[in-house]
Design goal:
Keywords: Hydrolase. The protein has a five-stranded antiparallel β-sheet. It is α+β, with helices and mostly antiparallel strands and 131 residues long. It contains three helices and five strands, in the order βααββββα.
Length: 131
């Protein structure tokens, strides 16, 4: 499943260079992942019922073109690959013309809430990676 989240760049997201600060892209990607989890029915409560949490362990971002105040963007998120307990989500930030402004591969791990150790990804998550 691929999700899309529209956003508009706000003045508070601009740095001294007049474009979106690099750290804000991470926030945009996080908003896109949260949208993906929600659309998949994988809320915090759902994971809590499974006694697991997800933890981001790696983010690789390619900044391709700057974003400026007022830009209308779309943040996408889709499953890329899954292992025993880790999984990768592919994300893009595109402008309204479809041009990629940034992309990222985000690796997360499913973790047991009590032991705080990695735990096999549940079938409810795994099913989104099969195709």
């Amino acid at each position: 499943m691929r999700t899309s989240l529209p956003i508009v760049v706000r003045s508070t997201e601009i740095d001294v260079n007049g474009h979106v600060n690099n750290a804000k892209y991470l926030e945009y990607f996080e908003w896109g992942r949260e949208e993906w989890y929600e659309q998949c029915g994988l809320s915090y409560e759902t994971f809590g019922d499974m006694d697991i949490q997800t933890v981001t362990v790696n983010i690789n971002v390619n900044y391709k073109r700057e974003c400026k105040q007022g830009d209308k963007l779309i943040v996408t998120c889709e499953p890329e690959q899954i292992g025993r307990s880790s999984y990768v989500l592919k994300q893009e930030i595109r402008d309204e013309n479809g041009e990629v402004r940034a992309d990222a591969f985000v690796t997360s791990v499913t973790m047991d809430r009590s032991t705080r150790k990695s735990r096999e990804a549940p079938a409810d998550l795994r099913k989104f990676f099969s195709s």
